[in-house]
Known about the structure:
The protein has 227 residues and is an alpha/beta fold. It has a single domain (4-93, 142-226), classed as 3-Layer(aba) Sandwich (Rossmann fold), CATH 3.40.50. It has helices spanning 15-18, 32-44, 59-70, 99-109, 115-120, 125-135, 144-164, 176-186, 220-226; strands at residues 4-10, 50-55, 80-82, 168-174, 201-207, 210-218. The chain has a six-stranded mixed beta sheet with strand order 3-2-4-1-5-6, with helices on both faces. Strand 2 (50-55), helix 3 and strand 3 form a beta-alpha-beta unit. The longest helix is centred in the C-terminal third of the chain and has 21 residues, at 144-164.
Amino acid sequence: MAKTELYVVRHGKTMFNTVQRVQGWCDTPLTKSGVERIQYLGSGLSDIPFVEAVSSDSGRAIETMRRILKEHPNGKDIPYHTDERIREWCFGSLEGGYDAEMWGVIPRILNFPDYDNMIANHVSFEDICNAIYDADTANWAETYQQLSTRVWTGFEDIAHRVEKNGGGKAVVVSHGLTIAFLMHLINEENTVRVDIDNGSVTRLLYENGKFTIEEFASTAYIEKGMN
Length: 227
């Protein structure tokens, strides 16, 4: 049996990413530069024999996967489906507002003077999730338990399915905070970070029911596709 690997991609840069607005379950399309970067990524991944492709059900993730598979010589033959469990976090009534507003509110809820101070004090994902839940006036945001279960079962089910079918490599398109959170669920030493680049690849090995992080937020595949 081949070893099981997930190539987890953050979707391409979108309109809301560009104007720095909160984008969780709400959605905007990729920009021209976002499309170009993903095309380079697709080229950089084109020699990898993927056995499966999975994206979140958000439009930006679907568009990203479509462009990755278009650059792959076997892209039309790679089984592809979506999974809502690997969506971005839901930010509730904070969706669509400016990033600076949300990251201004969250520290105050957690009794920090500002965002930088909050990060410097190693705030946890659970604290941030609880703050979003408390700030959400629409009652759409998830509890920490709901979020943890959704993200973990989503990625683990993908890996387990690939393993069950003989192993191999799968390409998965998800979202920045969700990927960072998954890294924490795999290894609690991975703390909060929001600097995962659009189009970057995090490579995970799955063996004996456990994930190992082999590569994190790499842009090497984009650079390879540009050459």
